[in-house]
């Protein structure tokens, strides 16, 4: 039994979220966004010549102990030029951000449009915002620290 295929663990006693997968049209562009702009790290990459696809796992953690996003790039797929259809069932990937307002300001400075600016839905709830990745997938950013407040 090869340990390389047990990256998510082999002695779990409870269910947990492992990853969400999105298909991307340009892997390098997506890696630049998720890693360069959002600050995620590449956990692993597998290029499968026989199947003509690549899979890259990325996460904010340096290992597989936390949830990850799987970027799947099908090398020769027509959607690489035309774009993928997101369908009506896809919602979003949610990322916790300690200083949401500061992070959104950093994203805007880097040219990333904020689709829905930081706001709270209920009194006392954490703020949230929405952006889109280079393929148009929705990403929800949720305030995860009570220690940061919006700039006045």
Class computed from helices, strands and strand pairing: alpha/beta
| Uncertain segments | none
Gyration radius from CA atoms, angstroms: 17 Å
In total, the number of domains comes to 2
Reading off the top of the CATH hierarchy, the class of the largest domain is best stated as Alpha Beta
Order of helices and strands: EHEEEHEHEEE
CATH topology of the largest domain: 2,3-Dihydroxybiphenyl 1,2-Dioxygenase, domain 1
Q: What does the average pLDDT come to? A: 89
Looking at the overall shape, the CATH architecture of the largest domain is Roll
Could you state the CATH homologous superfamily of the largest domain? Answer: 2,3-Dihydroxybiphenyl 1,2-Dioxygenase, domain 1
Strand arrangement, major sheet: 1-4-3-2
Number of strands: 8
Task: Describe this entry's structure for a reader.
- The chain has helices spanning 27-37, 79-82, 100-109; strands at residues 19-23, 41-48, 53-59, 68-74, 93-97, 116-119, 128-132, 138-143.
- The chain is of the alpha/beta class and 152 residues long.
- It folds into two domains: 16-79, 2,3-Dihydroxybiphenyl 1,2-Dioxygenase, domain 1; 93-143, 2,3-Dihydroxybiphenyl 1,2-Dioxygenase, domain 1, CATH 3.10.180.10.
